[in-house]
Design brief:
Largest sheet of chain A: 6 strands, mixed
Oligomer: heterodimer
Structural class of chain B: alpha/beta
Largest interface: A-B, 31 and 23 residues
Strand content of chain A: 25-35%
Largest sheet of chain B: 4 strands, mixed
Helix content of chain B: 55-70%
Number of strands of chain B: 6
Number of helices of chain B: 19
Number of helices of chain A: 10
Distance between the termini of chain B: 18 Å
Shape of chain B: elongated
Radius of gyration of chain B: 30 Å
Chain lengths: ~325, ~450
């Protein structure tokens, strides 16, 4: 990991008619990291990635790739996996891959052995000569990902890279992304799956309604929320937990609970209150999960309205 | 540049490898030949053994019609000099086709009453006992004296023009002869006086060469104009379909993020132009081989085919093919870029294409009068240049400055359209569902 800034997004805005999709968004991605652009559906993730790829032009603000320089040359140093499949249905897999490499300035002779290696790796070697439309959605997604990798880009921009993949393929893709990072490549991915982001990314940018609401190294972000969360697993009726004087906010489900404590509250008092009434199998004091932070930052209002019975909020 | 090449290759191979393309390319010449030859053959077959009743009110034309059955009817059409050699199949067929059986009835006085049974036979009202008739010619009693007298020819179809023409010729010849005889000129002299001269069209070029056959270059003009425009329309549609498809399949995001839209558009258009040239090349090779074969046969029979067709127009064909292609395809590309479905694009483009087809609809006056103001003006309007100027090149020799000016204007227009198309393409192609506002469009044209 170096401190070199590979991508800088500065005060970028983009509107479609009356809808402000991205609103003065700023963030930076350092070389050799995996950065996650997180947000709910429609938060402006895809629009942001399209602007970085030069597909949309920002209404305001600036995007800098590889420092200030030739935008045309920068194109060939970026690999892009769009959100929706973007491949020719009637073309053979191998022809398609060579074409995708060629329009990124990589000669077919160079790309062919790489394509074959990747197809092998993704368990698609037997589909080499098949037409794309004959492949399952998951396999098409993998072909698309190979297409983004063939020209060995320094920066990979992946819009929802594991959507449509089964868990086995998702693990495969995640391990490949980690390998690419180990090779020194930089990855910017968008996702709304927090569990995935937590396993993969070094830095996050959380956007909501086109604005960045949170950003930084994942661990720092979590730490900034303090080691003030208690995770419990238990048998019994945990309803009373939300009403404890030490608890500022609680999410209590059938057998698990995640409690955010009020500032200065003593975790031992919570434990003491729980022991006589519940049969505990886990009591852990930790930083909040990314999902909790996510919901806390961008979703609490919606969830409280829709799923009121599940979320008990105690505000003191 | 290598990116243009990549797109070029993809577009070219994608179409050329299609089964439909291969079948179409190989089959079309035969289909076209069939479309032209089969009706002609059917028509000839239909004329075989025509039977006509002649009701002669003057009762003086018997000898004229008696001669008809024996004579060689092709002489009138081919002239005695260039008549195809006897034994040639075509000549035999033509001879059979023009043969006529005449039922001559002298009916001085009431032609109407005499004609009635034959008219019944013509429409089959007699019960079909006698041999069926194909036509009934009625010559009025005053045919020799009354200059306003009219010959009537009854047939089941009013389009039996060849038979009509021929019967009219026979009667007129005999009547003229009769009128001359009445002035004291003898029959042999009358025949000599009435001998018609044949007219042959000769086209003369600046180099002093003489070319025969006005009608033939007319036909060549039509065929080549068709070869010039139809592939353009087909591949223009293909460009449009490709763009709409890339939009709906979202490939365009990858393309646009990889190369400037100008390069993308250039590769696409050139790729499909090459497809069109390949196809036309195959057609011309096939046509050339066929022409060589039949032409070789004709040469052996003593007819020089190249006196009809000027090979010098071929380079012009390619020049105007490419110009036309680039102009139409830009229009189609814009249509594809601003539409969300093929249907929508067709609706936008329909009226525009009608305008582009104007010279094709005016082909007849242009070919007939290639130096007229209409032809000259049309050939200098870039959208119309390719077809109009090429038709003029085929049938005459337009002044060099007009050729140069038309090509220059077309090139300028193509350059301007290409530039604009690339810009509009860049905006339009990504506006899924929502049309770009005019302000946005202008901004893209400036920035993209």
């Amino acid at each position: 990991m170096s401190d070199e800034i590979l991508l800088k997004v500065e005060g970028v805005s983009k509107s479609f008619g009356p809808v402000r999709a991205v609103d003065e968004l700023s963030f930076a991605v350092r070389r050799g990291t995996i950065a996650g652009l997180l947000g709910r559906n429609g938060a402006g993730k895809t629009t942001t990635l399209r602007m970085i790829n030069g597909i949309f032009l920002p209404d305001a603000g600036a995007i800098e790739l590889f420092g200030a320089g030739d935008a045309a040359a920068a194109r060939d140093r970026v690999g892009y996996l769009p959100e929706e499949r973007g491949l020719y249905r009637k073309m053979k897999v191998i022809d398609q891959l060579l074409f995708l490499a060629e329009i990124k300035g990589c000669r077919p002779a160079e790309a062919r052995p790489r394509a074959e290696r990747w197809l092998e790796r993704f368990e698609l070697a037997d589909k080499k000569a098949a037409k794309l439309e004959a492949l399952s959605k998951g396999n098409q997604q993998k072909v698309q990902l190979i297409g983004a990798l063939l020209h060995q880009p320094e920066l990979l921009i992946l819009d929802e890279p594991t959507s449509g993949l089964d868990p086995v393929n998702a693990v495969l893709v995640r391990s490949i992304l980690k390998e690419l990072k180990a090779e020194g490549r930089t990855i910017l991915l968008s996702t709304h799956m927090m569990a995935e982001a937590e396993k993969l990314v070094d830095e996050i940018v959380l956007i909501h309604q086109g604005r960045a609401v949170l950003g930084g190294e994942l661990e720092e972000v979590r730490a900034s929320f303090g080691k003030n969360t208690v995770h419990l697993t238990f048998e019994g009726d945990g309803g009373f937990l939300a009403g404890l004087p030490e608890v500022a906010q609680a999410q209590v489900d059938t057998n698990v609970a995640e409690l955010r404590l009020a500032p200065g509250a003593d975790t031992q008092r919570v434990l003491a209150a729980a022991v006589p009434r519940l049969r505990l199998s886990r009591f852990e004091v930790a930083a909040p999960s990314l999902e909790e932070i996510f919901i806390d930052q961008v979703g609490a209002g919606t969830l409280a309205a829709v799923e009121a019975p599940r979320v008990v909020e105690a505000v003191r | 540049m290598s990116k243009i090449l990549a797109v070029f290759k993809r577009e070219y191979l994608e179409v050329v490898r299609k089964k439909s393309f291969i079948i179409m390319t190989l089959l079309l010449p035969f289909l076209m030949a069939a479309v032209m030859v089969i009706p002609a053959m059917l028509a000839m077959k239909g004329m075989e053994g025509k039977r006509v009743a002649v009701i002669d009110g003057t009762a003086r034309l018997g000898s004229a019609f008696a001669k008809v059955e024996g004579e060689d009817p092709t002489e009138e059409f081919f002239g005695s000099g260039e008549k195809p050699k006897p034994g040639a199949n075509a000549a035999e067929a033509a001879k059979r086709a023009f043969e006529m059986k005449i039922d001559y009835v002298a009916a001085p006085g009431d032609t109407k009453a005499a004609a009635q049974p034959y008219l019944d036979r013509l429409i089959g009202k007699d019960g079909g006992h006698a041999a069926k008739l194909d036509g009934v010619l009625v010559v009025p009693a005053d045919a020799f004296s009354n200059p306003d007298a009219k010959l009537l020819y009854y047939s089941r179809s009013a389009t039996d023009l060849i038979a009509q023409e021929r019967l009219g010729g026979i009667v007129n010849h005999a009547v003229s002869r009769g009128r001359l005889a009445a002035r004291g000129i003898d029959a042999a002299d009358a025949d000599r006086l009435l001998q018609r001269l044949r007219l042959e069209g000769v086209k003369i070029t600046k180099t002093g060469e003489e070319k025969k056959g006005g009608e033939l270059s007319f036909l060549v003009g039509f065929v080549f104009a068709a070869l010039l425009i139809f592939p353009n329309l087909i591949y223009g549609q293909e460009v449009m379909r490709g763009i709409v498809q890339e939009k709906t399949e979202r490939v365009v995001e990858i393309l646009i993020s990889s190369m400037p839209s100008m390069q993308l558009l250039s590769g696409k258009i050139l790729g499909l132009a090459a497809v069109g040239l390949t196809q036309v090349g195959v057609w011309m090779t096939m046509g050339g081989l066929m022409a060589l074969y039949t032409g070789g046969a004709a040469m052996l029979a003593g007819v020089n085919v190249f006196s009809y067709f000027n090979l010098g127009v071929l380079p012009w064909f390619f020049v105007f093919y490419l110009l036309g292609y680039l102009i139409y395809v830009c229009i189609y590309a814009i249509g594809g870029a601003i539409s969300n479905s093929e249907k929508e694009a067709q609706q936008v483009l329909g009226p525009l294409m009608m305008v582009a087809m104007i010279p094709w609809m005016l082909a007849f006056p242009i070919l007939q009068n290639p130096e007229s103001t209409l032809a000259t003006v049309l050939s200098l309007v870039p959208v119309f240049t390719p077809i109009t100027m090429f038709m003029r090149v085929i049938v005459s020799e337009p002044p060099a400055w007009q050729l140069a000016l038309s090509v220059a204007l077309a090139l300028g227009t193509i350059w301007a359209m290409f530039w604009m198309t690339a810009k509009i393409f860049r905006v339009g192609i990504l506006s899924y569902g929502k049309r770009p506002s005019l302000a946005e469009l202008v901004r893209w044209v400036r920035v993209a």
